[in-house]
Write the C-alpha cells for this entry.
Amino acid sequence: MSITRTPTYTPVHKLEVCIAKRRQLLICHVTDDKIIQLRDVSVPETPAAMAMDGEFACIALSSKYVVVNTESGYAQDLFPYDSSTTIPLVKRITKEEFLLGGPSALGMFVTTAGISERPPLQWGENVVSVAYSHPYIIVLSSDYLTVYSILDQQLKQRLTFQGGSCLDNFDGKMYVASSDIICALLPVPWEKQVQALLSDKKVTEALELAKYSNRAGLSKEQFRNVSLSLLGIRLSVSY
C-alpha cells in the first residue's frame, strides 16, 4: 500500500491510498470509519514495490519498473532490472519524481514523464531500503546506513548498522529496524549542519538546508536573519 503525497482530491480527514491487489491497483479514500474505493487499474502482475504521487503510481514488477497514470490507465515502461541481483525499491522524492533501485548498484531518479533530471546515486551493493528527508537520501544496506545529498549525489556520512531490514521517514521522524531492534535516527541540529557545510565551502547546500529549515518551523524573521547571514558568508567565500 502507498499513500499519495500529492492527492488529486484532499478533503478533511481523508487519505488517498493506492493498494496493490493481485494484478490490480485500487485507489481508495480512507476516512475515520470507512474505505471508499474510487477506481481500479489493471497491471500485468502483482507489484513487488510501489509509491504514489498524485494520479501517478510507480511500481516495480518482477523485471522492470513502470509508471502508471491511475486516472487514464496508461502505463509507461521505465527500465528493466535483474531481480536476482537487485532488490526492487521505489521511493517518492518530490512532485512527480521517484528514486528507484537500478542496475549496476545505482539509485536512479525518474520522473513520471519517464526521464531522469538528476545524476544517479552510486550507492553500492546489498541495498535493503531507502528513505528521504530533504535534502538527504538515507540508504540502508546489509552493514551500513549511508547518507547522500540530493543536491550533488555525494556521500555525506556512513554509520555501521548490521542486519537492518527496514528504514523510512514517518512524518519527519526517521526510524530504522532490524529483526530485534528499532532505532530512531536523530539529525544533527540544522545550525550545526549549516556551519559544517560553510566550513567546507559548500554554500549552496547550506542555503538549501536553511531554506528547508524555514519550512520546518523557523519564523520568517529568523529565516530572514539566517539567509542574510549566509548571503554575507557566501560573498566572503566567493571572493
